[in-house]
Amino acid sequence: MESPNSSGLSRPSSSIPTQPENRVNKANRSTFAAKYNRKMLDWLGKQLAKNPEADIINLLSSTYSAELQEHISSAIAPPISTNGTSDSKPSLPAKDIRSRLNIAASSTIICELSAEVEELFRPYEDLSAGLVSLLSESDVLYESSWAASVMVFRLSENIVVKITGDKTSPVNEHQSLGYLQQHLPAFPAPRPHGVIRHNKHTLLFTSLVPGITLEKMWPQLDKAGKHNISSQLDTLLSTLRSLPHPEDAPLGGVQGGGVKDTRRFVRRSPEQIMDVRQFEDFIFAGSKTASPLYTDILRGLMPASPAKCVFTHGDIRPANIMVSRSEDGTLRVEGIIDWESSGFYPEYWDCVKATNNLTPSDKFDWYHFLPEPISSKQYPLQWLIDRLWDRNLVNS
C-alpha cells in the first residue's frame, strides 16, 4: 500500500508547526492540512485498535511535522510565477505539486540527463526556469491520492517525469532501470533519462510506456483475456527473476541503495544486508509491540533452507502494468512501470508485496490471476507468515 510519508518511522521532531499570526482562527475542515490530519488520525485509530497501549509518538512518522507545515504553508503563501515574483492569483491548485516549484530555487542534476532531456531544456537559461516552464505546459498522467506527494507528467511525445518529495526512491528507480537496460535490454520497462533535485522535490525522467493501466482495462476483460494477460506476465517475470544476484553484492538497490520494506510507510535498513538471513533479521525486527516469544515462534516457521535472491520489482499490481488492445482485439502487455522498490530481494518478496493491498473484504479478482512466479501458491508459508506479522509492524 502506498504510504503517505516517504521515510521510515521514528520519533518526530518536538517542534510542532504553529499557525501563522495572520491565519484566521476559525476552524476550516476543508484545507489540505485538515484533510492530512484527518487521514493521520484515522490511521492512528486503526493502530490503537490493534494495540491500545501503543506509544503514539513512536507511531508518527519523523516527517509528520514538516509535512503538516508544508500543507499549512501552501495554503497561505502566494504562488511563485515563472519570473520569480509572487502572483496575486494562484494559477494551480494547492494539491498540484507544480504549485510548490520555485524558479528561484536551485536545481541539481543527480543522475546524468539524456540528450533527449537536455534538448528539452535547451531554450531555457537554467534548470529551474526550464522545469517550471516545461511542467506548466505538460499533461498530468498520474496524481497520488495524498495531496501533492507524487505526480507524473508527460513532457514530450516520449519523455515523462515523476515528481516526489522522496530523495532516495527516484535514484534507486533510475539505477534499476539502467540495470535492466544493460542486462535485459528487451524487457518492456521505461528507459532512464536522468534525475534532478529541485529544492525539496526530486524529478525522475524516463521514457513513456504506451497503453493504459491494467487497472483501467481489467473490468473490460473476460476470463480468457485475464488469463492471457496473466500468461504474458508469467513470461516477463520469469525473465526478470532469471537475472543472477551478483556475488558479494548487498541486497536491495542495484548500486547499494539498501533494503526497504514498503507497506503503509517505508522502513529502511540502516545497515547493508548481505544475505537472506540478515534480510529476515531486518523484517522480524520491525515490531515494537510483538513479544520476543511471539516473534521467535513465528520466525521459527520460516523454511529452514534460505531462499535465493532474484531481481524483484517490489510492487506488481495492475496500476503498474501498462497494456493495450489492438483493433482485432489482441491484448498486449506494453510494459511494467514504477520500479522504485526494485532490486535484489528473496525470491518470495514479490509474492508478499503483490498482495500488500489485499483485504479480507476484497472482491478484486485480479488476485485469482496473479502471475505464477509471484503467486501465493508458490510461497504459501512465507506469504502466510508475512500476513500474520504485518499487523505488528511499525510501518504497517
UniProtKB/TrEMBL annotation:
<feature type="compositionally biased region" description="Low complexity">
    <location>
        <begin position="1"/>
        <end position="17"/>
    </location>
</feature>
<feature type="compositionally biased region" description="Polar residues">
    <location>
        <begin position="18"/>
        <end position="27"/>
    </location>
</feature>
<feature type="region of interest" description="Disordered">
    <location>
        <begin position="1"/>
        <end position="27"/>
    </location>
</feature>
<dbReference type="Pfam" id="PF01636">
    <property type="entry name" value="APH"/>
</dbReference>
<feature type="domain" description="Aminoglycoside phosphotransferase">
    <location>
        <begin position="172"/>
        <end position="358"/>
    </location>
</feature>
<dbReference type="InterPro" id="IPR002575">
    <property type="entry name" value="Aminoglycoside_PTrfase"/>
</dbReference>
<protein>
    <recommendedName>
        <fullName>Aminoglycoside phosphotransferase domain-containing protein</fullName>
    </recommendedName>
</protein>
<dbReference type="InterPro" id="IPR011009">
    <property type="entry name" value="Kinase-like_dom_sf"/>
</dbReference>
<dbReference type="InterPro" id="IPR051678">
    <property type="entry name" value="AGP_Transferase"/>
</dbReference>
